Amino acid sequence: MSSTLFLCQRCNQPLKLSQKLRTMQEGPLETQQHASPSPRARTSSSPLPDWGQSSQSSSCSTFSLLGELTAQRTLNTIQNVVLETFEILSGQKDVDHPLCVDCTDNLLRELDAQLTVVEADTQKYRSFLERESLVSEEEREAMHVELWAELRSLEKEEARLAQELKDVDRQHARIEAELRAAQAESRELEQQEEQDLKDYALLTMEELELTDELSSVEKRLAHAQKQLRRLRETDIFNITFTILDEGPLGIINNFRLGRLPGVQVGWNEINAAWGQAALLLFSLSKTAGLQFQRYQLVPCGNHSYLKPLAGDGVLLLFSDGSHRIFHNNKFDRGMKAFLDCLQQFVEEAEKKEGLFLPYRIHVKGGMLEDARDSGECCSITTHLNSEEEWTKALKFMLTNLKLILAWASSRYCFKMEPDWSHFE
Ligand SMILES: [Zn+2]
């Protein structure tokens, strides 16, 4: 006979027949296979005595075929098996499914517990019945009254507790609302905190940028102060204007002013020299705060000129040499006007003392007089004048300008410094 697989009907674990039982089943029942197709169908949920190999001690669940199986099967037991098989096959009896030993023990424990409960209930009912039979009618009435009173008291208590429950519910709802409000406020505060952190980061970045900018400005300021100190030590007049009066011709900023029969200086150079002289006198007057009377001096390179304050037209400080044939021409009048302005400055400077010039200026005749030695007078006009005289007059004028330049350098350079103290 091939091995047959049994499953526990509760836990579905496979059941293993004990070896002894299997031997007993397979031996005597072999002849039974012809009569019964299901020799293992004789089962029961009640356990049989242990066959030596206890199912509880086996790691695999085993189960025992129930019935009157003995080592020596009698005809009676075989008849019983056949009978039960017949009943099962004819539907007169249900087949009990097998159970493993553990499930069987559990089932028995459950049934024992139910039995205990049922017995306790039965005992209670019995005691009640006995008490009821012992209580008299009056006592029963009194007991009913007492129970009714207790019931009313309990109903009041229930109503009170229900009211209390409502109060607690209301309080719970109020606290929930407060909790929701607090959570909303908390979320708002978190958003605010997040925004504050962003603002803080922006401000920090701005602070860094401003610190960088401040550092840059401080460096520029230090550089500017250094430049300022260098400029303070610089004599602006002396480095801008250089006048040489050695030799027959006066020279200003490398431009010769005047011409001689043997030294034919170009008119462009003479005009440029006049432009430098005009620029020098203009700068000196600005520095001294002197406003010229009668003329406005306009330094304009080799096309410098003067504008009379009364009347139209201009007086030139440049020429191409063709002016000399005309009396009182614009060039001569321009040079005389320049002398006028120079004399105004000299008079202004003499008021402040410290200025002594070697050549006296006669504005009306356009003359320069050597006041130190010979008393020689030279005219600055060109009409009916020799080149030598004219050039000498120009050299006198440049010598005066050179001394005025030195005087102004010592007097005005430190006064020209603006007040930078608030930058330091
Ligand atoms: Zn089981």
Automatic annotation (TrEMBL):
Give the residue ranges for region: Disordered: 24-55
Which keywords does UniProt give here?
A: Autophagy, Coiled coil
| Domain named Atg6/beclin coiled-coil: residues | 98-228
Q: Which domain of life is it from?
A: Eukaryota
Pinpoint the Atg6 BARA domain residues.
231-410
Q: Name one Pfam family in it.
A: APG6
Q: Does the keyword Coiled coil apply?
A: yes
UniProt key word Coiled coil:
yes
- Using the record for this protein, list the coiled-coil segments as residue ranges, or answer none: 151-234
Q: Which Gene3D superfamilies match?
A: Autophagy protein 6/Beclin 1
* GO CC terms of this entry: phagophore assembly site; phosphatidylinositol 3-kinase complex, class III, type I; phosphatidylinositol 3-kinase complex, class III, type II
PANTHER family recorded: BECLIN 1 (PTHR12768), BECLIN-2 (PTHR12768:SF5)
Give the family, as the similarity comment puts it. Answer: Belongs to the beclin family.
Name of the protein this chain belongs to: Beclin-2
